[in-house]
Amino acid sequence: MKLAVASGKGGTGKTTIAVNLARVLAEEGPVQFIDCDVEEPNAHFFLKPSLDTEREVSILVPVIDRVLCNGCGECVKACAFNAIAVLGHKALVFAEICHGCGGCARVCPTKAITEQPNRLGVVSTGPAGNIFFVEGRIDVGTPLSVPVTKGARREIKEQDGIVILDAPPGTTCPVVAAVAGCDYVLLVTEPTPFGLNDLKLAVELVRELDIPHGVVINRADIGDQGVEEFCRREGISIHLRIPFERQFAETIAHGGLLVDAFPAWRPKFQALWHKIQEEVTV
Amino acid sequence: MKQLLILSGKGGTGKTTAAGVFAALAPNKILVDCDVDAADFHLLLAPEILETHDFDALPGAKIDPGLCNGCGICASVCRFEAALKQADGKYYVDPYLCEGCRVCVTACPAGAISLVDRLAGQWFVSSTRFGPLIHARLIPGEENSGLLVAKIRQVATQKANEKGYDLIIIDGPPGIGCPVISSLTGIDLALIITEPTVAGKHDLERVIQLARHFNIPVQVAINKWDLAPEKTDDIEAYCAAENIPVAGRIPFDAELVKSIAGGKTAVEAHSGPGTEALVALWENMSRILQNKSAQNQ
After folding, report:
1. What is the ipTM of this complex?
2. Domains identified in chain B and CATH numbers
């Protein structure tokens, strides 16, 4: 069972929901946690894993042999991403915008192009109590995040129980990389026009991808009724409402877990999981 | 003409709320929403859309099942795992995975693969009660948000130069990836709004590194600072050590949330402690930008 926690809008509490759920579920069986918010991975603050293994994620980018290159420009024509230009009769590569498709090396008539790995980030793994924890993290300055998300997901041990994936905010390709192939997407939102607008976009995406989904409303008591009305109209289940409490905000600010600091929330997260399971099996 | 970009690293720290106050207070400016993934700025500005333009993604590969012989060469050359085998032994291209590199098109021996145009989104030129707004909407699941950001920024810059606007205020995206990098190039001042949490500080540090990578001057503001005063102190100590000015602290103020619910910027809706702090933050930004303009002359 793979569960992705996503949101559209940033800062609604995706990571809070994902880490607290992981903690209560890990008491009952194996849980894997994949932090797919590779631009700004934060789950480690809450689950405090011992990250003992680190693997670099790279893509292959072209390297031009300036002796063999005759400046013919076939590579430039082959590149869909404008990542190669010919300057001074020699090809020049802009590695930071290269997608690593290998198209240039395939067409070069003088075999002047070889490919070498260009590092985008790292995937770290290790235990966090009973949880097998995986984090993808892009290097600062890298615009390509999808290969790092895919790298993090490659660490998933398919046969082992529950997998929780903490997705990045937004609704575009990095989110698709995190939620594609999951059995369920939990959408965390807040009851404001911003939360509602971005929830609608996120729902549009998960419907397009045909993944069952439900909603958690965070800071449920400060805002308006828009999200509730939208979910009712669209037949989307609201599985959990978390009120705004200064104490919750303080706990989260310091990297604490709600289910540890406020044990009354443990059954609520367990109930959340049961509701998700019911929707997946139906 | 100067360009002010509002960033955060972590999402949901209050970028758009601050941008709304700046929009209401700044004279003679153009507004831009570069959070094309999940654009919210328009919810405060009630834009009247004057122009709508299509934004195309790179054409994607499509396999003609009548011509596909199931050889699998497309799958072997595709670095994005986008060419997938179907139950009938033929291949198809998953449009969400295809990045449009065209490698499979030339590699297919049966000539079964062609390129199809893909609409990735739209961008708009609008008028608002605070001046022009350039904004966009990327279709959920699409890519190339960086290119769309570059496009709307180019439109805004052109308009500002033609019409003599002094300032472009840009509401930026969260994170440090493709659309953020595209938002940062050529910016005169980046204001990073953070929150006093372990995650907020961590994400702030990454976005500061990114801004430095591109040599962009940075100021920091701490929103909801009183929810964890020790964390606020942590962040201020970090900024002091890194020589980064802290331009403002905004207290937690539930009234700010309510102003959004009414579709108004905070300054139009009420005058609580949150709004007062945002007004003071704008005054700081305005002074810094004016000094920059004076230095250039």
Report:
1. 0.94
2. 2-46+129-296 (3.40.50.300), 59-119 (3.30.70.20)
